[in-house]
Amino acid sequence: MTVRLADYAPPSHLIEHVDLSFRLDPQATRVLSTIRFVPNPAAPSATLRLNGEGLTLIAASIDDAPIADVPDATGLSLTVPPHPFTFRAEVEISPATNTALEGLYMSNGMYCTQCEAEGFRKITFYPDRPDVMAPFRVRIEGDLPVRLSNGDEVAPGEWHDPWPKPAYLFALVAGDLVAHSDRFVTRSGRDVALNIWVRKGDEDRCAYAMDALKRSMAWDERVYGREYDLSVFNIVAVDDFNMGAMENKGLNIFNSKYVLARPETATDEDFARIEAIIAHEYFHNWTGNRITCRDWFQLCLKEGLTVFRDQQFSSDERGEGVKRIEDVLTLRARQFREDAGPLSHPVRPAEYEEINNFYTATIYEKGAEVIRMLRLLVGPEAYDRALDLYFTRHDGQACTIEDWLTVFEDATGRDLTQFARWYTEAGTPAVTMSEAWQDGKLTLTLTQAAPAMVIPVAIGLLAPDGAEVLPTTVLEMTEAEQSFTFDAPTRPVVSALRGFSAPVLLSRPDAPEERAFLLAHDSDPFTRWEAGRSLGKSVMANVILGDGVSTKWLDALARLTTDASLDPAFRALSLRLPAEDDMARTLAAAGTVPDPEALHAARGRMAQALAERLADDLADLCAPVPGAWSPDAGQAGRRALRMQALALHSRLDGGAVAQQVFDRADNMTEEVGALTALLEVGVTAAADTFLSRWRHDRLVMDKWFTLNVLHAKDAPAVVADLIRHPLFDAANPNRFRAVFGALAANHAGFHRADGAGYRLMADALIALDPVNPQTAARVSSAFEGVAIYDAARQARMREELQRIAVTPGLSTDLREMVARMLKDRRN
Ligand code: B3K
Ligand code: ZN
Asked: Rounded to two decimals, what is the model's pTM?
C-alpha cells in the first residue's frame, strides 16, 4: 500500500500514559498493556485504529469491559467512548522465531528490541506513529539477571520514562550481561550513571566507546547547550542487528560492531566510526527524541540534523579538513550514486511503500548537507540562535520540515521559500562555472537547471605564486544564470566549491594545469584534494583508452606524498585512487559506457606506475609509526599513509615487506592493511594465517570474509565458496553484508561479464528475504547502477531483478526496491 505525505491526518486519540508488563519466554512472551487514551479534540472520532502484526490476542478490554473485536492482519479497530478511557490487552509473541530482527527478538540468548520505524506493532496493539507520544512504565519479569528499558530504574526490572515519547523509541533488553560503567556530571550538576552492557568476555572492548560517549555529552553541552535529562544512560551491544545503532530513549542499542573495540581487533576506521555513531545516537536525545518527527516523511528532520551534528563533532575532535574530505567521499559514493539512479528521491519523499527502505543516504547524508548549507548561508551565530529557538519552541513536540524552516525564518528574517526546494527536489544539481578575465576584472558565470535552487558556492582566488588574493567568499546562487565580478589586476586561479559548500556536480572547462596548480597551492584542504582527484580521474579515463600514465600526474602526486609538512592523513587520502564504481559513474555521466574489466586494469596500471615513481621513497613511508599505539587522528593518519605505501611497495617486492608487517602487527589497522597489500598481489596464504588467528572472534571474522571477497580476482567464485564456509551465517546481518556487501563493492567481480556476480547476489537475496526482509532490501541496492552499463550487462541484471520480483511471497521491502530498480530504463 502506498503511503502519501499528502494523506497525513492527525491521530484520533492521544495517550496520557502507557504501562507495559513483559513475561519473557522465548516462544511465548506475554505482553500486558494498559493504555490511557484521550480523544484528540483536533480529530474527534468514535473509532480507534490500533496497529498490531503477528500478535496473538489473549484478552482485551475498554474500561474493564471485555471487547469482542477481532484483529485483522495489520491491527485492531475499536469502537470507543467519547471520553478518556483505559484500554487493556494481553498478547503473546515469539521472540525466538523472530528472524526479521524487528520488534522483540533474541540474539545469543538475549532479548532485545528494534522498534523504529514500525516495530512496536509487533510487540503489542498500539497507535504506532511518531506523533503519538506518551510516558511509559515498564515491568520486565523473567529469570535473566539484567533487565533494562527506557528511563530510570524504579525497582529491579521496573522502569519509568517520564519523557513523552513515540513507540518507535521504546526498548527492552534482558540477558546475562556485564557492564562497563562510568559517570558523567552534567553542567547543571546532574549525576548520570553510564553503562555499556555486553556479553561476558567483551568487557575489555568498551573503553573507547565510553570515552567517546563522555566527549559527546560534553560537546553537546558546550556547542548546542544540550544536557542529558535522565539519571542513567545505558548502551547495549547486540550481535544481530539490522543497522548501526538505535537511539531509544536512555537505552541505546548498538550493533556490537560499532561499540566493541581494542587495538588488536578494531581498525582506526572502526574507532572513528564508533566515535561517530556513539555521538550520533547520543545527539538524538535532543534531535529526535525530545523533538521528534510528526510522520515518517519528516525523517530527515531528525536524521539530517543528527548526522550534521555528529559530523561537526568528529570534525572538532579529529580535524576539519580531512573529516570533510571523508564525508564528501561517502556522500558521493552513496548519495550521489543513489541520486543518479532509479532509487533517487527527495530529502523529504512524498510517498513510500515500506518506510524502512527510506533510511537512505539521501535522507541522512544529503539531509545533513542541506543543514550545512543553511548554516553557511545564515552564518554560525544566526544558526545558533535558530537552534536555540528550535529547542525552546518545539521541545516535546512531533515536528515537520516546515516547523524547522520557520524557526530559521523567525530567527534570521530570511525567506526560505526557495531554499525549501532542497527538501522536495530529487537529484544532484549540476552547476557549470565559466570565467572571463578582462581589464583587471574577473567574471565568474554560474549556471544551473530549473527550478533554480539556492546554492552557496564558496570560492577563493589565488595569485600565480600561490598566494591567496581573495580569501574564502560565499557566492549565493539563486537563479539559472548568474555572474559575479572581482577586481583582479593579474589573472588569478579560481578555487571553487571550497569545503564542498553545496552537494552539487560542478563542471568547469578542462584545465589540467590549473588543477595541478591547485593541488600544489590551494589553502582549502577540500579543493586541494579535489584537484588531485579530478586529475586522477582524467588520467584514468585516458589510461582506459590506452594512454600511458601521465608523468605530470605522477610527479604532482609524488611531490605531495613526500611533502613531510603536510598532514599524513591528507596525504593518504590524496594517494587513494578514485574507486572503480565512482569512475564508472563519472564515465557514464560523460556519455561513455563503462567497461568494468578495463576500468579495473587501468586502476591497477596507475597504482603500478605510482609505485614505480615512488620507489625510492616507499621504504621511508613504510617505516613503523613512532610512539605507543593510540586511536587519535594524528596516529591514525600516519598509519593510513603507511598502509597506502605498503600496498604500493608490494607491487614492487611481491609483498615481502607487507608479509613482515603482517607477521609483526600488534594492531588491527596494520594487520588488515598488510593483509590487503598481500591479497592485492595474489599472496593468499596470509588469509589462512588470519583465519587461524581470529576464527573465534566474530567481529574480526567479518573482516576476513570481506577482505577475501573484496580483493578476489574472481569474486563470484570466492563468494560461492565462502557461503559454504562453516562460519558463514546468512541470518546474521553483519556476516551477510561482510560477504554480499563486499561482492557489490568488488566492482569488476560483481559486474563479471557472464553475470555470475548478479546471479549469486539474486540467489542470496531471494534466500534471505523470508528470513530478514530489511537486510535483503538494503543489500539489493547493489543493482541500482543497472542503467549505466552495456546492453548485455543490463539485460543480465534485469533478468535477475525480474527473477526476484516474481518470487512468491516476496516481502514488501524487497518488492518495492526491485520494482523501483526495474523501472529504470534510461538507455
Ligand atoms: N534511527 C535509527 C535507524 C532506524 C532504522 C529503521 N529501519 C538509527 C539512527 O539513525 O540513529
Ligand atoms: Zn540517526
From this structure: 0.99
